[in-house]
Design a protein that fits this description.
- The structure holds 2 protein chains of 2 kinds.
- Chain A contains 16 helices and 2 strands.
- Chain A has helices spanning 3-36, 50-53, 60-67, 70-89, 91-101, 106-117, 124-134, 140-148, 161-189, 193-201, 206-217, 219-231, 238-244, 250-253, 256-266, 270-299, and strands spanning 43-44, 55-56.
- A two-stranded antiparallel sheet of chain A has the order 1-2.
- The two termini of chain A are 27 Å apart.
- The mean pLDDT of chain A is 85.
- By secondary structure, chain B is mainly α.
- Chain B contains 16 helices and 2 strands.
- Chain B has a two-stranded antiparallel sheet with strand order 1-2.
- The longest helix of chain B has 41 residues, at 286-326.
- Chain B is globular and about 85 Å long.
- Classes of the chains: A mainly alpha, B mainly alpha.
- The interface between A and B is large, with 91 and 99 residues.
Chain lengths: 304, 327
């Protein structure tokens, strides 16, 4: 690229660059300016000093975080909730897509699909309201558990520690399974139909076809999704958690992001919670790199 | 790019399924296969019903008699009504809950606010995203750098607190604009639109320029009408997201006059607050009525989107597929 090219380009496309300017300003202000704000993590933030004028205290915020009893609790909760969620919620949409794919009656298939997306359109707040109603004192699920003998007496399940994570995970399945299956169904329908013909001639049954054609056909998509999931291990979706947890269940429900929200925005410990969040981002980045490298080594697929 | 169009065509499900049906009819199924099919149909039917049941339950409860609704402890499949055994009073199904809900000034204001946020957000978002996408799709030397600058923002951002501080410094906290501006320009949308622009024929641009069309004429009069489908997709996705978003307001809005619907819903559903401006003291059984109001509020807050979704899901599916294919 020579200077004269740039000059010519500028003369020709000046107006395009001016048009793009507002967009650049937007991204600068709302995305890149906050990155500078991570220096909050190294400060003892005071309202008087502000972001630029507060006292610089080095990594003291990080040390404080690692030495409180919150640290092991948050790490344990975040990883446990994430893993349980992943074990159930990662395969669910794939299985649903495979089962839907086996349906030959198209009207039936469409209907089931439409029904399964529906919870995705319901807002998180309403979903949490529904959860609270279903597992409350008189909720259908509580009643069912009592009559099955799992629970000695009717209680609000959300305030019981052992029930919190299962409730969260199951409600996530309900909410996201249908929506998650869309992408897999799309990939499934682009698998070459002639492969199935060839397999049939070779005498492969439907199960064999699924195992040797369908699954390999969607393997790339599965790997891609898996890498994304692993890298967001620490970024448990907190919006649902902060709506559902109570002080009695903080012990099992409080995760890093909900802690950042509570300590930072509700209690005003800006410096400290920024430090916690930076720790979270660094670990997530490492996880992404590790997951990507592992995938490249064993399945010859990688995001970058 | 032509490749992508081919793939989309391939995804025309009905054609494929027709082909598949013919083939499957030709070959007789083994008993195991028949067994699997029966299981599959039953299982998926149950699953579909299971997805709907919770909302159906609430819908039916919202019409029920409040005294019976509170005592109900199973899944309710039709509005509850009956006769009180001791007093022989009729306990009929009622619309009373909805009457209270629609008199709730906070809820109505929440509705109006949300409609404003979604409306203003959609318009600004689509205009800005299409201008951005248009600039990137032009053949300029720095166009691809623009894209990279945006893409990087998906991976690197300051996080919750620093973003909050920036918004605070800009004086946006506790104003309507913070909700409209947050997430206004989505990188994902810009990418979708710029792909659509690039798919338009080259001659279009040249001939328009020969006719003396400027960038705005080019963009709004010529290019945009040709990519209506993509615009519809991103608008819908954005609107749904905005309608359901409560986190932004939760973080930035303290003034109850600016609360969107979702915050009002949270107060009524989860914090068990008696909705502001509602007088339920005249009701003989306040607590029961409050429960009923909760159910009605859920329905009122959810139904607008649910009415649309069977119609928009086609676009929705397409949007997801376009999004995945760029990756």
């Amino acid at each position: 690229m020579r200077l004269s090219d740039i000059k010519k380009d500028w003369l020709r496309n000046k107006s395009v660059y001016f048009l793009a300017l507002p967009m650049l300003v937007y991204f600068f202000i709302f995305n890149y300016l906050p990155i500078g704000g991570i220096m909050l993590a190294f400060e003892d933030y005071t309202a008087r000093g502000g972001t630029l004028g507060s006292e610089w205290i080095g990594i003291k915020n990080f040390i404080t975080f690692f030495s409180t009893y919150y640290f092991p609790r948050l790490m344990r909760n975040t990883i446990l909730i994430s893993l349980q969620n992943m074990v159930v919620n990662f395969p669910a949409p794939i299985i649903l897509a495979l089962l839907l794919n086996e349906m030959e009656n198209q009207i039936f298939k469409k209907t089931v699909q439409t029904m399964s997306y529906m919870p995705f359109f319901v807002s998180t707040v309403v979903i949490c309201g529904i959860i609270q109603d279903f597992v409350g004192m008189n909720g259908p699920i509580t009643t069912a558990l009592v009559s099955l003998g799992v629970l000695p007496k009717a209680q609000d399940l959300l305030s019981l520690k052992p029930f919190f994570v299962p409730i969260l995970v199951v409600s996530n399945v309900w909410q996201g399974m249908g929506y998650g299956s869309i992408i897999f169904l799309a990939v499934l329908s682009s698998v070459d139909q002639e492969l199935y013909e060839a397999a049939k001639i070779d005498g492969a049954g439907r199960w064999k076809q699924t195992l040797h054609i369908t699954i390999p056909g969607i393997r790339t998509m599965i790997m891609m999704m898996l890498i994304m999931q692993v890298s967001s291990l620490l970024n448990v979706a907190m919006d649902k958690i902060i709506l559902l947890y109570r002080p009695t269940t903080y012990e099992v429900a409080d995760v890093i992001m909900s802690f950042v929200y509570r300590r930072g925005l509700m209690e005003g410990a800006y410096g400290f919670s920024t430090a916690v969040q930076i720790f979270n981002s660094i670990v997530s980045m490492l996880l992404l790199i590790i997951a990507n490298a592992t995938s490249r080594k064993y399945s010859e697929f990688s995001l970058f | 790019m032509g490749n992508r169009a081919d793939m989309l065509n391939n995804l025309d499900e009905s054609a494929i399924s027709k082909k598949r049906n013919e083939k499957n009819n030709a070959i007789k199924d083994t008993p195991a296969r028949v067994g699997f099919k029966v299981f599959n149909y039953i299982f998926l039917t149950l699953l579909g019903i299971l997805c709907l049941i919770p909302l159906w339950h609430l819908l039916m409860l919202s019409f029920s008699n409040p005294n019976l609704a509170v005592k109900a402890n199973g899944v309710v499949l039709w509005p509850l009504s009956g006769v009180n055994a001791s007093t022989q009073e009729a306990m009929s199904a009622t619309l009373g809950g909805y009457q209270i809900v629609f008199k709730n000034s906070a809820l109505i204001r929440g509705y109006a606010n949300t409609i404003f946020y979604v409306g203003a957000g959609c318009i600004l978002s689509v205009i800005c995203a299409s201008i951005g996408a248009y600039c990137i799709s032009r053949r300029t030397i720095f166009g691809s750098y623009l894209l990279i600058i945006m893409m990087l923002s998906m991976f690197f951002n300051g996080g919750m607190i620093p973003t909050y501080m920036v918004n605070k410094a800009l004086g946006l906290v506790n104003t309507r604009w913070v909700i409209v501006l947050t997430g206004m320009l989505s990188v994902f949308n810009i990418i979708i639109l710029q792909m659509a622009f690039r798919n338009l024929p080259d001659g279009l641009e040249e001939s328009a320029q020969l006719d003396g069309a400027g960038h705005f004429t080019m963009l709004f009069k010529i290019s945009l009408p040709l990519i209506k489908a993509s615009i519809a997709v991103i608008t819908l996705m954005y609107a749904i997201q905005k309608w359901n978003d409560y986190m932004t307001a939760q973080i930035y809005i303290r003034n109850s006059k600016l609360y969107p619907l979702q915050i009002i819903l949270r107060q009524i559903l989860l914090d068990a607050q008696a909705p502001e401006g509602v007088d339920i003291s005249t009701m003989e059984s306040q607590g029961n009525m409050q429960e009923l109001v909760k159910y009605c509020t859920t329905i009122v807050g959810t139904v607008p989107l649910l009415c649309f979704y069977p119609f928009i899901q086609k676009y929705f599916v397409k949007g997801i597929m376009i999004g995945s294919m760029k990756g």
